[in-house]
Amino acid sequence: MDASLFTVQPAGPEPIYRQIVEQLRRLIAGGQLGAGDALPSVREVAGFHVINPMTVSRAYSLAEAEGLLERLRGKGMVVASTSRSSQSEASRLAMLEPSLQALVRQSRELELPAERVLRRLTTLLEDEP
Amino acid sequence: MNAVRQERDEAAIAPLAVRGLVHCYEGSEVLTGLDLAVQPGSVLGLIGRNGAGKSTLIRAMLGLLQPLSGTAFVFGEPALKLSDRSKQRLAYVPQQPEALAWLTAQQMLDYVGRFYPRWDRSFATRTLERWQIPPNKLLAKLSPGERQRVDLIRALASQPELLVLDEPAAALDPVARRELLREIALRAGESGTTVLFSTHIVSDLERVASDVAFLHQGKLLMQCTVDETKERYGRLWLPARISAAAPAQSLSKRRHDDGSLSLVVERDAQGQWPQAANQPGARVDALGLEDLFVEVAA
Predict the structure, then answer these.
(1) Whether residue B164 is found in the same domain as residue B40
(2) Contact B185 A42 (CB under 8 A)
(3) What distance in Å separates residue B186's CA from the closest CA in chain A?
(4) Predicted-complex ipTM score
């Protein structure tokens, strides 16, 4: 995997380190990154995206603390062997949190009763794709 | 023994620090009692509107002008009486370099290189070519942009511990600008170089800066890490009917034609937005640095 794995939007309202962690979560949950896959080095990511290496380190450390990555001697950061199975329902649900918050905000702005929104959401969720 | 202690002290000392800086031009105050310390290894981006006094602040920090009052320290030494040893450890690129105009770019780099113990000659040669500087033309005959590029090469080739750049982006095309930013970022991250740069291109700052300071009306606003500015500040919008609920404390306040209000607000120690944000109809938007800057400085 090289540094083009990530996309970085420096001007966005979300700090870059969080953009990277968020992408790692999605890539691992979605299976694009599998256990043992090596991550590009801090230097590679910083050089490629022209961002501060400390930002990349911070993202990797956070991902390590979350159990997404692990530090292997001589290999650098790799996707943790337990990362997929340890994805509890709660942590997968947490990934939806920002979208749910946005949905709640918009529903309030539109002054929609909660039950109508929930009913529609249930229909969408239960519908076969 | 002494050398060890000296090294340890140097590691702890902020490479740049000013206290109570006040300065005036023609009777109007440009800096109004300003404190700032740049920590070792940090990359501080200084933003402010044109004429906000960014260059004045930088020059005062380096002891290149004597402020009306206040103190400036470089590597812990009074900036106005800097030792040669400290001068070797820092590199400053002004907006309009004028020194040594009677030399060619190549001659100038060869000449000044001798004064720096860690001069990187091959970097200088390589970058001169990549940034398309005619090496044998007199500096006086180069365009202002080319002049500043040569000076940036000089500054980087000296491998300084402290790098101070005044609007470095102005002289570079987007490709060369990226290269410069990459140099800044990697040197700070890997060699622990401390960097201060002023810019009006906020996205440059967001890429490589670890810290940001807004210079506005002679004061520094929101001096914190770049990540913090994004997490700690937001724009609270209140429709007209509840605009009376606006918090007393805010960094900026704008009333719109329809009576609604936009305010830049800050999370409290518990991470909560001000009370008014919970009112029905109120909205808090996350802000990029540029939006934040415009809200506060407009």
Answers:
(1) yes
(2) no
(3) 7
(4) 0.83
